[in-house]
Write a structure and sequence with these properties.
Helix content is 34%, strand content 26%. It is of the alpha+beta class and 495 residues long. Helix 9 crosses helix 17 and helix 12 crosses helix 14. The chain is elongated and about 90 Å long. The chain starts with a helix and ends in an 18-residue tail after the last helix.
């Protein structure tokens, strides 16, 4: 009885396809036996350069997506990884048995065809088939191609089906690959070295975020999936690798929305003897340069806004931004109580776990009232020390740090520092983070003794940056949700 309950149930169409497969296998025509196809051309190549292919024999492979049988001949379309092309099958050319076999195939089946390239009377570039082979049976009916697959939940759960029915979605992931390639070349040409650091750690650090926890059976200890690559990379700076970067997956056990996925991809880079101004130049160079190379223009559209990515992005201190957009001049305020009162007068509330300080009031004003106004590329610099535990203080104002965040369309795309290299100051800030954890802030940093030990050996003045690759790709593809640029986004399991 239990075995019967676990048996899958099939629709009528699914059962028909399975019956066809069983009949093929019984007759010695198992489509899954073939191991290789010598593909000699792609659909887009033939269409783009018809004169070079006209009258020549080609072999293509892909998925049959349409078919129109007209007695002794048929027209069909094949979709390969770069496009689609029509092919023409005639009984007298392939033989009666092969033609009957072709008519028994289903939309969605993977096939290969060999034949001559020609144009039909209507001018459509096609392949006149002399040989046709079934490569794999599609056991599910495809969604109707005219209407496409529009159920976003199903699209993200079954990305493979999404790409079959909506091949245009592959554009986002091609652009993603092109962006990462451009970024690698950009950094490699600056003599950066790409490295890899651990995904599993015994201590959480490098960001304010809640981690995923797992257990190492052999060591019998809990471990954390990394929330940042920062601290291991800084250890390498201490060790004498002056320019390092890592492109890697990050895991944060936090909310999901159009801009956040629990696992996402960042690049973090660190350069000895540099500061946050150098990081601004690199961030601008990577994003504007990638836009120009991929699209041929600095102009993109994102979230309904026309964005100009041409170099020369605006740079504002946080104090300047709050003064411009909210009307509070924190530069003229020195008292903590006065700063908190000024923020409250504008409807800004500080977090319960936050100290009622000038710096926390400034950041709350920016976070709650200013960020939403930042549409064109803008670097916001000089963050309060309270929200920047790993950043070097400003020599001009010790309440502030040499840090920036890059905002485009009120979204943060990059975060960078002049890195804190004073081990005594760093220990004090870690201890402050521990106090916040004790008050219930489970996103506050842990104290990393080994990292402090590394700093005590001496880390040179260093500029460092983290950039969200997913959001950069959202910008370059005009996507309004992060799930459109992650091949397999995190989804709640269906019952």
């Amino acid at each position: 009885m239990a075995q019967e309950q676990n048996m899958p149930s099939y629709s009528e169409q699914e059962q028909i396809r399975r019956d066809k497969l069983a009949a093929l296998q019984e007759n010695g025509r198992d489509p899954y036996i073939l191991t290789k196809v010598d593909v000699t051309a792609k659909s887009s190549e033939i269409i783009a350069d018809y004169e070079a292919y006209e009258g020549k024999e080609v072999t293509l492979a892909g998925r049959m997506i349409t078919r129109r049988v007209m007695g002794k001949a048929a027209f069909a379309h094949m979709q390969d990884n770069v496009g689609e092309i029509q092919f023409y099958v005639r009984r007298d050319d392939v033989g009666e048995e092969s033609y009957a076999f072709f008519k028994e195939m289903d939309i969605g089946d993977l096939i290969s065809v060999r034949g001559l390239v020609f144009k039909t009377k209507t001018g459509e570039i096609s392949v006149h088939v002399s040989e046709l082979t079934l490569l794999a049976k599609c056991l599910h009916p495809l969604p109707e191609k005219f209407h496409g697959l529009v159920d976003t939940d199903l699209r993200f759960r079954q990305r493979y089906l999404d790409m079959v029915v909506n091949p245009e979605v592959k554009r986002n992931f091609i652009i993603r690959s092109q962006f990462i390639k451009f970024m690698r070349n950009y950094l490699d040409n600056m003599d950066y070295i790409e490295v890899e650091t651990p995904v599993l750690n015994t201590i959480v650090g490098g960001a304010a975020a809640r981690p995923f926890v797992t257990h190492h059976n052999t060591l019998d200890i809990n471990m954390y999936m990394r929330i940042a690559t920062e601290l291991p990379l800084k250890r390498l700076i201490v060790g004498g690798m002056d320019r390092v970067y890592e492109i890697g997956r990050i895991f944060r056990n936090e909310g999901m929305d159009p801009k956040h996925n629990p696992e996402f991809t960042t690049v973090e880079l660190y350069q000895a003897y540099a500061d946050f101004h150098d990081m601004m130049d690199i961030a601008e160079g990577i994003i504007s340069g990638a836009a120009k190379e991929i699209h041929g223009t600095y102009e993109v559209e994102w979230m309904g806004e026309k964005i100009d990515l041409a170099p020369g992005w605006r740079r504002l201190t946080m104090v300047e931004a709050v003064k411009e957009y909210l009307g509070i001049d924190f530069g003229a305020i020195s008292d903590d109580a006065e700063a908190v009162a000024a923020a409250k007068a504008k409807g800004v509330e500080l977090a319960e776990t936050a100290d009622k300080t000038w710096g926390n009031a400034l950041y709350a004003c920016f976070d709650q009232k200013v960020e939403e106004h930042l549409i064109q590329p803008t670097f916001i610099t000089m963050y309060p020390v309270e929200v920047s535990p790993l950043t070097k203080r400003s020599p001009e104002d010790p309440r502030l740090t040499e840090r920036f965040e890059l905002f485009i369309c009120h979204s943060e795309l990059a975060n960078a520092y002049s890195e804190l290299n004073d081990p005594i100051d760093q220990r004090a800030r870690f201890e402050k983070q521990l106090e916040l954890r004790e008050r219930g802030d489970d996103e506050a940093e842990m104290l990393d003794e080994d990292f402090l030990n590394a700093l005590e050996y001496g880390m040179p003045p260093t500029g460092g940056m983290g950039m969200g690759i997913d959001r950069c790709v959202m910008l370059l593809t005009g996507s309004d949700t992060i799930r459109e640029v992650i091949l397999f986004p995190t989804m709640k399991p269906r019952d």
